[in-house]
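hey can u check if this looks right to u? its 196 residues, i copy pasted from the old doc so theres a chance i mangled smth
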Amino acid sequence: MSSFAESFRELLESMLDKFPFEVLCEMAVRAKLLWHRRNCLVFEDSFSSPARLSKKIQAEVALIRSEAEQRVVKQPKQDLSPQTWTPPPLGVLKANWDVVVDKTNSRVGLGVVIRDSKGLLGATLWACKATLPDPILGEAAAVLRATSLCADLGLTHIVLEGDSLGIVKAVQQTEEWSSVGLMVRDIKLLLSKFSS
């Protein structure tokens, strides 16, 4: 690109690459309020002093910064020690599931990975559901989806593995009367069709 931009778009694109987000945000606020000041003068015959404009710019930028800081959700520190995958016995497939819960948007994301004893990928599935943002409910939905995927694929020898001890215990109990009881009942019904 030459030293002079050929269009406003090129100028803007070069600025987006060069400046940090905070500077670009302040530039956008300045442009918006300058345009608003110009429109007030042209259409309403109302003049606003540069000092007043400067105060408005500072106030709006401060408001944007404080809103951005409030949106940052502090995540609890997790133990990110390396996890190792343990293969299933020969002739058996392992279905691993995991869930992420978005409480703000009442959504649950779930994933399932099926592998053989050599670690070769057999199938994968991911889904995003609008539901109550309950981690236990999300885990139950993931186990149910993993089990139904195995059944749909006609698999008979499977091992299910996930990180929710509460759901594993619920599936192992004789009766479940919690909020996920119906899902656990469906999981057990599907599991009864498998050989292992």
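The longest helix spans residues 21-44.
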